[in-house]
Design a protein that fits this description.
- By secondary structure, the protein is of the alpha/beta class.
- It has 4 helices and 5 strands.
- Helix 1 (21-31) packs parallel to helix 2.
């Protein structure tokens, strides 16, 4: 597929909780190897703090893509992985008042 090595870390968190800089720094440390890996993907069902996002895109470091819970759900939906559509109906009260 043309991939070089890639590190992936996934964390299941409450959607309202954030991943902070130390977790990203630990991930960067793990990527140092051996073997040294230039690309990483960090996924969380929560969010990333602003400082964690800045840490992940600091110049001179390996490339780290961050995928938070909302983006993760959007990707699962886009590629139809582990999801299925739900049809919902609401009652039109105005319709029944006219009868």
């Amino acid at each position: 597929l043309g991939f070089s090595q890639i590190y992936i870390q996934a964390k299941r968190h409450d959607p309202s909780s954030s991943i902070h800089t130390p977790e990203v720094q630990k991930f960067v440390g793990a990527m140092m190897g051996p073997p040294r890996v230039e690309k990483g993907l960090f996924i969380t069902t929560g969010t990333f703090s602003k400082a964690a996002r800045e840490e992940a895109c600091s110049p001179g470091k390996q490339q780290i893509d961050l995928l938070d819970g909302e983006e993760f759900i959007n990707k699962l939906t886009e590629y139809e992985i582990g999801v299925h559509p739900i049809t919902t109906y609401t009652i039109d009260e105005d319709f029944f008042r006219k009868i």
